[in-house]
Amino acid sequence: MTDTEIRFGILGCADIARKVSRAIALAPNATIAAVGSRSIDKASRFAAANGFPPSAKVYGSYDAVLDDPDVDAVYVPLPTSLHRRWAVAAAEKKKHVLLEKPVALSAEEFDHIVAACEANGVQFMDGTMWMHHPRTAKMREFLSDSERFGELKSIHSCFTFAASEDFLKNDIRVKPDLDALGALGDTGWYCVRSILWAADFELPKTVIALRSPVLNEAGVILSCGASLHWEDGKVATFHCSFLSNLTMDVTAIGTKGTLHLQDFVIPFEEGKASFSAATKSWFTELVTDWLPRPSEHTVVTDLPQDACMVREFARLVGGIKGSGLSPDKKWPTFSRRTQLVLDAVKASIDKGCEPIAIFN
């Protein structure tokens, strides 16, 4: 049976929308139906520059995309400060919502988005692409193996990049009225998501921001980190920054094994991705070598991870549209828990790195 083709509208012409537009074109069950911007000229140039199909409609407003009966779902790459308004508006027009991260400025804001999606029976998913790479499923198999990995004890995550001078002055991610969470909401979102993913989305009980976060003159975070603590003794740390060389590391350590990868957000190569797994590691007799050495595992994919994300979102939407299925609640749950941890880190920074308790 052929999957239902889901028709996407895109709200805005952000750089990330170029990548997701390509992903929609590559996904076998999706197509671009419309794009809207505050300027119809900008939307027209964006559609032409990114090879939109001739059938794609071009609008000079976001509302026009939401009013289009030929649009099933919308991708929203707008600044975080606009997420609540436009995600809620999309849901109220019965459009399924694929929303860029961070999903909101706070969990309270996000709850309004979820309530609108639930009230209107539409699917919600955030744009965390690496969650949909087939490598992620293979890594989950290792983490779930009690003989090879054992019990999870700690997770360490880092996502940094050295932003240009122009970025640090002009990008929306350093503007308090557009993306007030700065590096915490951008690179930090991925770090927190990786930690929660490794912990099977069990929320920590306490979060403590690391000392000496770096903020710009407007008070937006450029670099920060935190430690996360669970009641059973698990711990995690992360560091996120716009001020350090490109790094995308995750390490998960269990009682019997260790998982490590160096490119968790964007794989080194689009068509394949690797990770290392070590089980019951120790040294040789003279402590000169590891025995056994970590094993390398490579996962090949026919679709890039962003297209895998679109395919999965479109599959869920197709099930709702074509078979009357209910929206999958897993994805908004993952988003909300990630946002709760971000909120706690921000609160800890604001309070001089005091411990902050998390309540679901």
TrEMBL record:
Residues 6-125 form the Gfo/Idh/MocA-like oxidoreductase N-terminal domain. One of its GO terms (molecular function) is nucleotide binding. Residues 144-259 form the GFO/IDH/MocA-like oxidoreductase domain. It holds the Pfam family GFO_IDH_MocA_C3. InterPro entries: Gfo/Idh/MocA-like_OxRdtase_N, GFO_IDH_MocA-like_dom, NAD(P)-bd_dom_sf. It comes from the Eukaryota. Belongs to the Gfo/Idh/MocA family. This is Oxidoreductase, N-terminal protein.
